[in-house]
Design brief:
By secondary structure, this protein is an all-alpha fold. The chain has a single domain, classed as Orthogonal Bundle (MetI-like fold), CATH 1.10.3720. It is 69% helix and 2% strand. The chain is built from 13 helices and two strands, in the order H-E-E-H-H-H-H-H-H-H-H-H-H-H-H. A two-stranded antiparallel ribbon has the order 1-2. Strand 1 and strand 2 form a beta hairpin. The relative contact order is 0.13. It comes from Rhodobaculum claviforme. Keywords: Cell inner membrane, Cell membrane, Membrane, Transmembrane, Transmembrane helix, Transport. Belongs to the binding-protein-dependent transport system permease family. It is a multi-pass membrane protein.
């Protein structure tokens, strides 16, 4: 088989076409990562006027800090809860909309709108809904005997931030799931229906396996979203409280660095957070991708 080779009128044209992406990657990814790695090896004074090289001392202090391990645990619970809830609801909505004949486009538009809401705005919306003083849901929950107060209850606060973060991400997942459902060959589903397979069996044995590439992609994206892109939601709803109950890693980086002015520890935490995401992504592509049917 003969392959075609692309030729350019100038030997510099390929490099010119690659230059914008390379420059953006260097400025917004490589340089900040290298800067954070270097700062994690330093310790600055309270005024930020002098830096001292301390090696891995910032990392050793983190591993001796119980609050940091609490933040790791909180991040794990938050990431798993947000990912499962947002992907589960998005898949359910996508199946419901895909089965519609009329009003499919209208429902799709309504379900996509929340993705345009900024994370901080989404946090404020859910803060008002669950506000113990003026929120409607605490009033409803009080009627059934549950005293909701995310200001004093860590479990209530975690539920609040998971709901807000999942609601923000459902639209993104919904778009991909709906596109995947619309690409499933109807002949396979009709053949299974003729053979007597129930609707649930047709979904779990035919449709869902065909959605595995999209599910795998969204699994990676949602975990990264929960660990990095939910700062605005946490800051607008609970600010990491009460009693560190919602202080996820990305918010702890902000609190220690910009509030506590401990830039060395904050940089070390950001390096560890970046390493955790890289390890999780490698594990997902190395082991989970084997179960994906392309």
């Amino acid at each position: 088989m003969q392959t075609k080779r692309m030729t350019f009128p100038s030997q510099w044209l390929p490099y010119a076409l690659l230059a914008p992406q390379v420059i953006i990657t260097l400025i917004f990814f490589i340089w900040p990562s290298a800067r954070a790695l270097w700062m994690s090896l330093l310790r600055e004074d309270a005024w930020g006027l002098r830096s001292t090289f301390v090696g891995l001392d910032n990392f050793r202090r983190l591993f001796d800090d119980p609050l940091y391990f609490n933040s790791l645990q909180v991040t794990g619970v938050f990431a798993v809860g947000t990912t499962l809830l947002s992907m589960g609801l998005a898949l359910m909505f996508a199946v419901m909309v895909n089965n519609m004949i009329r009003s499919r486009d209208a429902y799709s538009t309504f379900l996509v709108w929340p993705y345009a809401v900024a994370p901080a705005v989404a946090g404020v919306l859910w803060w008002f809904i669950f506000n113990p003083s003026i929120g409607i849901l605490p009033y409803v929950l009080d009627m059934v005997g549950y005293d909701w107060n995310h200001r004093s209850s860590g479990n209530d606060a975690m539920i609040l931030v998971i709901l807000a973060a999942a609601w923000k991400q459902i639209s993104y997942n919904f778009i991909f799931f709906l596109a995947g459902l619309q690409s499933v060959p109807q002949s396979l589903i009709e053949a299974a229906a003729i053979d007597g397979a129930s609707r649930a069996k047709r979904f779990w044995t035919i449709v869902f396996p065909l959605l595995s590439p999209i599910t795998f992609f969204l699994l990676v994206i949602n975990i990264i979203y929960a660990m990095f892109d939910t700062f605005g939601i946490i800051h607008a709803t609970t600010e990491g409280g009460p009693s560190q109950a919602t202080n996820i890693l990305v918010y702890k980086v902000y609190r220690d660095g910009f509030v506590g002015q401990n830039f060395g520890s904050s940089a070390a935490q950001s390096v560890i957070l970046m390493g955790i995401v890289i390890v999780l992504t490698v594990i997902q592509f190395r082991y989970i991708e084997r179960r994906v049917n392309y």
